[in-house]
Design a protein that fits this description.
By secondary structure, the protein is of the alpha+beta class. It folds into 3 domains: 4-295, Beta-galactosidase, Chain A, domain 5, CATH 2.70.98; 305-495, Aldolase class I (TIM Barrel, Alpha-Beta Barrel); 622-700, Sandwich (Immunoglobulin-like). The chain has 13 helices and 39 strands. The strands form 8 sheets. Strands 8, 9, 10, 11, 14, 15, 17, 18, 22 and 23 form a 10-stranded antiparallel beta sheet that branches. It has an 8-stranded parallel beta barrel with strand order 24-25-26-29-30-31-32-33, surrounded by 5 helices. Strand 19 (233-239) and strand 20 form a beta hairpin. The relative contact order is 0.09.
Length: 702
């Protein structure tokens, strides 16, 4: 079986992955129409799939047929349009004709040209031999002498095969409450998920799944798609009155276009699609393997145990205090020490200094070198907080360059968190950002950047950006990517965390150039159960940074035992953010072994398969299990926020183990038969009281 095959007689293309076949056919009218997405087929079988019903034209419904691979504006199309342009003479719409196609290994490009105007459109597909994820994107090229206005350019339209019912699953939320999982029946009409904020967004994330309303965690056919883009975006799910369902995915939001100048071509971001027959858990596992293997820049690395100073010090940062925190963090076994906000300029609060990226001489009289050197001598790597895309109006940078921020003439400049957004679409702003970041990292031997962004776009204007100022919505992200890519090329050992007030910029685009994300500013362990549950639907634990912080929690006021806080954070990339000098001896004594235990299970958590045994619902028991790639180790986490009288803790039926194997509990030494763990279950030993938790590390002994 070849990854991409073409049958000239029927003009059928077949894309093949280990578990999926995806086929499309060029109709007699030159339209590329979707044919099949399901279990693997041979090319002969794909060519025998009945053609979509012939195009019919009705008085009010227009063109009626199965889904096009990329529906364009033009003719009697009244549904969601994936590609919409306007030419210099005011003509809108496209009439595309097939030109040619080409394959290169696992990549297919099908090229179309407009029948009159000098525009070329390419539909691109990529498959890999080790993944069922299919990547798609669209290219638009202006081959003429006048600009073409692009009003909408989606990456792909994903057809969902006909089923008796449909359910839509996605995440929603807000700052401090990201990735809340929702599932509901799919309404007829158009359901739009979007971000208009300049970033991926806290309130939504550019992925979704659709099933036949019959899928569960371990069973059922699930179709899903995710967009690799870190700016504004839109997913439009269409269910017609006759139950034809599709998902159109692309960058940008409504009302914003950009010009394609003569000779220019733009490729849209990748939209990735997946069909899984293993339910939501099977889909998550496929996405996790895809992200670890084909998205992350260093997929084989284990993320280190981190300490971050923010919740300990706030803006009260100085060399002596950071040295003390570093020594205590090292004593706990921390591997990466990160100094957060407050080390630069006049940054004694969030009111001033942002944008002035020079070391504060009062707080660090000898620069950063003494602190960095001590952190390295303690056996840890050194990281630092930066927010390159923002500026306080009360800063030397803003006073020198007030034109560098997003703004419109004759309009107020809205401040959020006392800051404005620098226009990264401007080449001079992007060059400035790379310059000081390059110097900061290179001069000080910095190993890690916590790259933050603490507000969305407002007044997204560019007065000197010519008549095409709206292109900033795209160019901003393009330049953001270029700065990060260039910085990493300059400093191959540098690792980066994506932070946007927590989880406001989490997507496959930013993960291609960063190593982890700050999941949420909400570090309350109870709230984190739901946040992490939603996050893990698409993104793997190796990217999910989670902190153990002090109580009462600064957002919720909730007090949770240290053990519970650790066990929640250990289900991702463990980090500590508490004020260590104020921890009691008993807390420090409890934390050290937990850090050591996490280091032992980190390969299982960060590289293993996730099994969601019980979802977090109310105050009941929830549990997840990670199984190492070779199946010889497993880590089981259990959390019980509130026990109820008369309700015993149930045995957890584990997954992913060998029924013929025997597994030793590394804490108790007890040996369990795999068949018993799978068929009967494991009853966790939980302490009495609220917020009880347990971690069971199982290792195969035969």
């Amino acid at each position: 079986m070849f990854p991409i095959e073409y049958d000239a007689a029927s003009r059928t293309w077949l894309l093949s992955t280990p578990g999926t076949g995806y086929a499309m056919r060029l109709g007699d009218d030159g339209t590329l129409r979707h044919l099949y997405w399901g279990a693997p087929l041979t090319l002969e079988q794909a060519a025998a799939v009945p053609a979509p019903r012939p195009v019919t034209m009705t008085q009010f419904e227009g063109r009626e047929y199965d889904i096009e691979e990329l529906p364009v504006e033009g003719g009697a199309r009244f549904g969601a349009v994936a590609l919409r342009v306007r030419f210099a003479d005011g003509t809108r719409g496209l009439e595309l004709a097939y030109a040619d196609h080409a394959t290169d290994g696992g990549t297919l490009r099908i090229r179309f040209v407009d029948r009159h105007y000098p525009v070329e459109v390419g539909l691109h597909y990529r498959v890999r031999p080790d993944s069922d994820v299919i990547e798609r994107w669209t290219s638009v090229a202006n081959t003429g002498g006048e600009p073409v206005e692009v009003l909408r350019a989606d990456s792909a339209v994903w057809p969902i095969p006909g089923r008796p019912g449909y359910a839509l699953r996605h995440v929603t939320g807000h700052w401090g409450g990201e990735t809340q999982l929702e599932r509901a029946g799919l309404a007829r009409g158009e359901t739009v998920l979007t971000s208009r904020r300049g970033t991926t967004g806290h309130h939504a994330n550019p992925w979704l799944t659709i099933d036949a309303a019959d899928a569960g965690e371990e069973h059922g056919e699930v179709f899903s798609t995710a967009l690799a883009w870190s700016g504004t975006w839109r997913l439009t799910v269409t269910r017609t009155a006759t139950d034809v369902v599709s998902v159109s995915a692309g960058a940008g939001h409504e009302g914003v276009g950009w010009r394609l100048r003569p000779g220019q071509r733009r490729d849209t971001p990748v939209s990735a699609g997946l069909r899984s027959t293993g339910g939501y858990g099977g889909a998550s596992d496929a996405w996790h393997r895809y992200v670890r293997t084909h998205v992350l820049p260093h997929p084989d690395e284990l993320r280190p145990v981190t300490y971050n100073s923010w919740e300990a010090t706030g803006f009260t940062v100085d060399e002596a205090g950071q040295r003390l925190l570093a020594r205590q963090a090292a004593a706990l076994g921390v591997q990466l020490f990160v100094m957060d906000d407050g080390w630069f300029g006049a940054r004694v609060s969030d009111h001033a200094g942002l944008g002035d990226w020079t070391v504060n001489p009062d707080r660090f009289p000898n620069g950063l070198a003494p602190l960095v050197d001590e952190v390295h001598q303690l056996g840890m790597k050194f990281g630092i907080w930066v927010e390159p895309e923002m500026v306080n109006p009360d800063s030397d940078l803003y006073r020198a360059h007030p034109d560098w921020v997003l703004h419109f003439p004759n309009r107020r400049r809205t401040e959020l968190r006392q800051q404005l957004v620098l226009n990264f679409a401007r080449p001079d702003v992007a060059e400035w950002a790379h310059g000081w970041l390059d110097e900061l990292v290179g001069k000080n031997g910095i190993d890690f950047l916590k790259w933050d962004m603490n507000r969305p776009f407002t007044e997204a204007g560019w007065p000197d950006g010519s008549e095409d100022a709206d292109r900033l919505w795209m160019s901003y992200v393009d330049n953001l990517y270029r700065v990060i890519d260039r910085l990493r090329a300059d400093h191959p050992g540098l690792r980066i965390q994506s932070c946007c007030g927590g989880g406001g910029r989490v997507d496959l685009g930013i993960l291609r150039r960063t190593d982890e994300v700050w999941t949420s500013d909400n570090t309350d362990a109870y709230d984190r159960l739901a946040i992490q549950h939603g996050y893990g639907q698409l993104y793997p634990a190796a990217t999910m940074c989670a902190w153990v912080t002090d109580v009462p929690n600064f957002l919720t006021g909730r007090t949770v035992p240290l053990r519970f806080r650790f066990h929640v954070a250990m289900a991702g990339v463990l980090a500590i953010g508490g004020n260590l000098p104020e921890w009691t001896e008993s807390e420090l004594a409890e934390a050290g072994p937990l850090v050591a235990q996490y280091k032992r299970i980190a390969p299982v958590v960060q590289r293993g398969r996730l099994h969601r045994l019980l979802p977090p619902v109310g105050d009941g028991l929830s549990a997840v299990q990670y199984v190492a790639p070779d199946g010889r180790e497993s880590a089981v986490f259990c959390w019980l926020p509130a026990p109820h009288f008369g309700h015993t803790v149930p045995a957890l039926r584990l997954r992913g183990l060998d029924p013929a194997g025997r597994y030793r509990d590394e804490e108790t030494g007890e040996v369990h038969h795999g068949a018993v763990l799978l068929g009967h279950g494991l009853r966790p030993s939980l302490p009495a009281g609220d917020y009880a938790s347990a971690l069971v590390h199982l290792v195969r002994v035969d």
